[in-house]
Amino acid sequence: MTTNDWLKLIIAIVVCECAGGVGSFFTIRAIKTWYAKLKKPKLNPPSWVFGPVWTTLYLLMGFATFLVWQNGFENPYVRIALIIFVIQLILNAIWPAIFFGAHSPRWGFACIVILWLAIIATMTAFSNISPLATWLLLPYILWVTFAGYLNFEIWRLN
């Protein structure tokens, strides 16, 4: 890999992890207060699980983004794929602000449904450029599907 490739890889991973940092700003404050008081579904994992899972998912997203970006931003398919990716990453950062920050499982669920669709769009756009990038997003869509279930159940139970 060239120096430019390494720089792209680092930027892609840092941007994704920073989106997680934005989300954690809202999450950390609510975990021991508002969230702790909510009724949760039986499949709800312990709170400590979410940090390592999300950190890993952001790392995979960053690497997937790098694989697409490596094909050249001048390529219109790459530009479109990366724009779709950025949209879903913004939605990813907004969800914790809605769910944890605004204490709104209802609107959090609406956001996570839109996020889920944006991830599917990202995976579709990535698949035209790098099949490996698409596979790297598979754990992400599976986790967001599970998070959508948890979000819905928390909304329903509370």
Describe what this molecule looks like in 3D.
The protein has 6 helices and no strands. It is 78% helix and 0% strand. It is elongated and about 50 Å long. The protein has one domain: Ferritin (Up-down Bundle).
Secondary structure layout:
Blueprint: H1 3-31, H2 50-69, H3 76-101, H4 105-127, H5 131-136, H6 138-157
Kindly estimate the percentage of residues that lie in beta strands according to DSSP. Answer: under 5%
Q: Mind describing the biggest β-sheet?
A: none
Query: What string gives the helices and strands in order?
Result: HHHHHH
Number of helices: 6
Helical residues, percent: over 70%
Cα end-to-end separation: 51 Å
Outline of this structure?
It is built from six helices and no strands.
State the main characteristics.
single chain, Ferritin, 158 residues, mainly alpha
